[in-house]
Specification:
Number of domains: 2
CATH class of the largest domain: Mainly Alpha
Mean pLDDT: 97
Strand content: 5-15%
CATH architecture of the largest domain: Alpha/alpha barrel
Order of helices and strands: HEEEHHEEHHEHHEEEHEHHEEHHEEH
Shape: globular
Distance between the termini: 19 Å
Length: about 400
């Protein structure tokens, strides 16, 4: 199948309407914490609050969304005010004395726990950069670049984090180069940083060299430091949605580089490999975990359907289609789009349920928790809206 111009225009309108009239209003303004700053995002299906703790990841992500919509969709004053509230909360409460950010804090900002990685920092970078672009705040822009420098130091080993595993079986995950690609892309597009292009190229090269396995048509989630497969349960475990998210980051970079053919090929290859391994041929949807050798997976949620892999696959398939014209990607996009909006979307209250059983039934109805908030879904709807608008203007 293929999409006609009329089909693509209808998709653009659909994503725009879902974003602005369904997804976004579920979260805002109700989630703005006018007393303590930041956002109250742990919410039930109807939007009622189920916990007032704050996940630092999601504070940064929400601030990014608000500033990004202000920068690219409509300059609503309240969106910028709310974004600044999140940035101020991050700066005031979410950094430990050693400079590393917390993962989980109370409503008032008291620390609960840290994690052994620096993903909170990456969301602080993109949110503060987007807010700095909106406000023209040079000090905030400099602060964003400083946090990005910390990310580079953690990634290179110049700054040490507590080890996640013992040294008996050393490994590295695709998550670090992948998330840093997107962090640098966001920083580059908002306030700019001369380091971004070089580092993005390095991280793409690392993914291609160490994680993409052409001989078995697979993208590994973690590998040994030399890129070899670790033949144990953790080493064999794949996360198709995560690799597909990385695929569209690379396709986005290809688009930025005047449709670089090598990067288009790499991004599409990653999408192809993990669609083949991740799409559930019996029930539809993207399976959460798979084993590279089709052996049993350790995690009990391995065959659940979670919201965010579907958001990333909707983006990846649409972007691949717009960039290549390959009708396979239009078909895949329609399959994952139809599945997701049929099964995850809450037509009564808006937004998406986060967790389904393999058969598509709802596992639990909460819309917000330590991991789910206003990011993957609104980012998907915003990004698809933007690339479709650009594509239709050019054709």
């Amino acid at each position: 199948m293929s999409y006609s111009r009329q089909d693509l225009a209808a998709l653009k309108d659909f994503y725009s309407n879902q974003l602005l009239n369904d997804t976004f209003p579920f979260w805002f303004p109700r989630s703005v914490d006018h007393e303590q700053g930041g956002y109250l995002l742990m919410r039930d299906a109807d939007g009622s609050l189920i916990d007032d703790d704050k996940a630092v990841w999601i504070q940064g992500r929400a601030a990014w969304l608000l500033a990004t919509l202000y920068n690219t969709v409509e300059q609503k004053k309240e969106w910028l005010v709310w974004s600044k509230s999140g940035i101020d909360f991050l700066k005031k409460y979410c950094f430990d004395t050693d400079g590393q950010m917390f993962f989980h804090v109370t409503r008032a900002g008291q620390p609960i726990r840290k994690r052994r990685y620096f993903f909170s920092e990456t969301f602080a970078v993109i949110s503060s950069a987007a807010c700095a672009k909106a406000t023209g705040d040079k000090q905030l822009a400099d602060w964003s670049r400083k946090i990005f420098s910390n990310c580079l130091a953690y990634a290179s080993g110049e700054k040490k984090l507590p080890p996640k595993f013992s040294n008996v079986r050393p490994s590295k995950g695709i998550g670090v180069p992948m998330i840093l690609i997107n962090t640098a892309q966001q920083l580059r597009s908002t306030i700019g940083d001369d380091r971004c292009d070089e580092w993005i190229s390095k991280w793409i090269d690392e993914i291609e060299k160490d994680f993409v396995k052409d001989d078995i048509r697979c993208v590994m989630e973690q590998v040994a430091p030399d890129g070899s497969i670790i033949n144990h349960i953790d080493g064999r475990t794949l996360n198709p949605g995560h690799a597909i998210e990385g695929a569209w980051f690379i396709l986005h970079e290809a688009k930025y580089r005047n449709n670089d053919p090598r990067l288009i090929s790499l991004g599409c290859k990653m999408l192809d490999y993990m669609w083949e391994r991740g799409w559930d041929k019996e029930y539809g949807g993207i399976l959460y975990f798979r084993d590279v050798d089709n052996k049993p997976v350790q995690e009990y949620w391995q065959d659940m359907k979670m919201w965010w892999p579907h958001n990333e696959t909707i983006i990846a398939t649409l972007l691949a289609y717009l960039m290549t014209g390959n009708e396979k990607y239009a078909q895949w996009h329609k399959m994952v789009h139809d599945y997701a909006y049929q099964h995850f979307h809450d037509k009564k209250n808006g937004e998406w349920f986060g967790y389904l059983h393999r058969d598509g039934s709802i596992a639990q109805p909460a819309k917000g928790n330590l991991f789910k908030g206003p990011f993957h879904l609104p980012r998907q709807e915003w990004y698809c809206k933007m690339i479709l608008e650009e594509y239709l203007q050019q054709k």
